[in-house]
Amino acid sequence: MQMRTLFVFDIETVPDTDAVPSLTGFTDPDVEARRAELERYHLEITDGRNAFPRQPFHKVVAISFLEADIEREGPGEVYLLRELRSGGQADYDEKTLLQGFFQHFERIRPRLVSFNGRSFDLPVLKYRAMIHGIAAPALHDKTNKWENYGARYAADWHCDLLEVLSDYGASARIKMNEACAALGLPGKVGVDGSQVAGMFDDGRVQEIRDYCETDVLNTYLVYLRRQLHTGILVLEAYNRAVADVIEYIKAEMEARPHLGAFLEAWGTASGNKFLL
Questions:
Q1: SS3 for 197?
Q2: Residue 2 phi/psi, 5° resolution?
Q3: Is the pTM of this model over 0.90?
Q4: Are 57 and 197 in contact (CB under 8 A)?
Q5: What is the chain's alpha carbon radius of gyration, rounded to the nearest angstrom?
Q6: Cα–Cα distance between 203 and 201 in angstroms, integer?
Q7: Which terminus of the chain has fewer CB atoms gathered within 10 Å of its CB, N or C?
C-alpha cells in the first residue's frame, strides 16, 4: 500500500488520578496526593527503578500533528507540507480529543512518524480509546501480515525514529534532544514534559498544545534528515521540504508566537544554516 499522507504526531499526558482508587485502594480526593500514590505504586512494582506511570494511567491532554502530502518523484519521495496543528476544542475533553484523532486517522490512513510512538504514544492512545469505547479498526488491520501499523519493521507504515535510528536496539536509543543537538535542530524550546502536569493544573492547555507542536516539528525535521540519509529523499527534495517548514512558520508565527520562538532557536542551533 502506498501512503499518500505523512502524519507526524506527538502527545502530551498527565497522570490519570481517577484510576488510583481502583488501582491501589487509595481514596484521598486530593490530586497531588493521588499522583504521589501513583508514583509510589510504580516504584513498588519496579523495585524502586521507575516512578513513571505505565501507559494506561496517562490521560491525554494534547495531540499535535503535522501533515504532508507524499509524492513520488523518480525513485524517491517528495513531501509537501500541508499543516501543523493540534486536535481538540477550546474546552478540554479527553474523549472528544481521542474521537477526533481516530476518526481522522481512519479517514486518511497515513504513514505515521513518531519518536517513541510505538512504546508510548500509540499504546497510551489505544488504552485511552478503550477506556472511552472508541474503535480504531484500521490501526489493527493485519490483512497484510508483514506490512501494517503493528509490524515493528514496517517503517513505511509507522516510522518510530527512536527505533529506526538505533537499528531497533542494536545501538543506544537516544533522546529526541540528543538527536536535535547532533543535527543542529532546536530541540525543546522553553518547556519540557516534566512541566506539563503543572501547566494542566493551571488550565494552560493551549500552551501545552503549543509545546507539543514544537516537538512535532523537531520530529519531522529529524525524519527528513533520516530520509535523506537512506536515499528516500534526494538533497533537492530535502531542502525543499525544509524550506516549506520555514515558509510555513513565517506565515504563521505572528498568530502563533511559539513557532517564531522555534525558528529563532533553530537559527541559533544551526548557525542560521537551515539548508544543506
A1: helix
A2: -95, 115
A3: yes
A4: no
A5: 19
A6: 5
A7: C
| Paired strand residues for 6 | 68, 111
> Residue 226 corresponds to which cell in the numbers above?
533520516
Cell digits for 102? 481516530
**CATH class of the domain defined by 5-16+53-270:** alpha beta
Task: Identify the residue whose cell numbers are 505572528.
Answer: 254
Tell me which residue of 47, 39, 50 sits closest to 16, measured CA to CA. Answer: 39
Residue 244 · residue 137 · CB < 8 Å: no
The secondary structure of 122-170 as a DSSP string is: HHHHHHHHHHHT---GGGG--SSSSSSTT-TT-TTTEEEHHHHHTTTTT
Decide: 84 and 255 in contact? Cβ < 8 Å.
no
Helices (H), the chain: 20-24, 31-45, 94-108, 122-132, 161-165, 176-183, 196-201, 205-230, 235-252, 257-270
**Domain residue spans of the chain:** 5-16+53-270
Grid coordinates given for 133: 469505547
- Polymer length of the chain: 276
The rounded distance, in Å, linking the Cα atoms of 7 and 108 is 9
Provide the residue-wise pLDDT of the chain in tens; the chain has 276 residues: 688 999 999 999 999 999 999 999 999 999 999 999 999 999 999 999 999 999 999 999 999 999 999 999 888 999 999 999 999 888 899 999 999 999 999 999 999 999 999 999 999 999 999 999 999 999 999 999 999 999 999 999 999 999 999 999 999 999 999 999 999 999 988 788 889 999 999 999 999 999 999 999 999 999 999 999 999 999 999 999 999 999 999 999 999 999 999 999 999 999 999 999
Cell reading at 159? 516510522
